[in-house]
Amino acid sequence: MPQDNAGPVELAGRDRILAATGHHPYARLTTASREPREPRGFAQDGVTAWIVCWSRGLIACALGGSERAAGLLSLLASRGELSGVRRVNLPRVDHAVLAAHLPVTSPDDWDFRWTRTAPPGQPGQDRVAPLARDDDPMIVELLERAFPSTFTRPGDAMVRCWYGVRDGTRLVACGADRSRGGVGSISAVAVDPAVRGQGVGTALIATMTRELLADCDVVTLGVMADNHSAGRLYQRLGYVHTVARTSAMLAG
């Protein structure tokens, strides 16, 4: 297929990035930064890439063909456009191919899923409730036991609210609402290993999805590619739309 030799077209601002991606939920979510500056985008050869300030610094994202996305990010890096970018997030790509284009570390594969439909009621949903600031220590303790690798933690400015399930005075499940830009976003879902398989996580996700759909037209979440049990759960709850992603830290 012929390549676009004219170089990438710069897309100034969120509206042009969204138009280039067909208002894809992933683009809508990631370009809805709370920073006053607009995200910067680039389009070339069927790929749209953009740079935006996230909770952990600048990230570069892309939608389109995987190898072409890696190539576009490599070109942008060579031009100094990725200066200060800490992480890249692009369509699922072989890690060796990605490393051939960019100096990356710690690549991982995951799926971005979304739904526009509220799931049916689930047993135990009456136990799901918003958490308060005073619950932060319990959230941290649960995350350390059940999901220590998550970057979303109490105090994250991008979290609107935490939801949880208690067993007596003990917190046994939690999830963060990171919705923005009219897109619902569920993150940092953690279930105490002692209660897994009892429907606690199902009740939590179902309740949060319905709550977020009250003021968002779509709700999204991410799941690691090798977490097949979670993937099946989300599928059952209506998260049938998905795009495969690869993320990595950008070295240097």
Notes on the structure:
The chain has helices at 14-20, 25-30, 66-78, 95-101, 136-146, 200-213, 228-236; strands at residues 9-12, 40-44, 47-54, 57-63, 85-91, 104-115, 128-130, 161-167, 170-177, 183-191, 218-224, 241-250. The chain has 252 residues and is α+β, with helices and mostly antiparallel strands. The chain folds into two domains: 9-109, no CATH class; 117-216, Gcn5-related N-acetyltransferase (GNAT) (Aminopeptidase, 3-Layer(aba) Sandwich), CATH 3.40.630.30. A hairpin with a 5-residue loop joins β9 and β10. The radius of gyration is 19 Å and the shape is elongated. 39% of the residues are buried.
Mean pLDDT: 94
Count of domains: 2
Low-confidence stretches: none
The global form is elongated
Report how far apart the termini are: 33 Å
Q: Spell the H/E element sequence.
A: EHHEEEHEHEEHEEEHEHE
- % residues in beta strands: 25-35%
Number of strands: 12
Report the major sheet. Answer: 12 strands, mixed
Number of helices: 7
How helical, in percent, are the residues? Answer: 25-40%
Kindly report the spatial arrangement of strands forming the biggest sheet.
1-2-3-4-5-12-6-11-10-9-8-7
C-alpha Rg (nearest Å): 19 Å
Structural class: alpha+beta
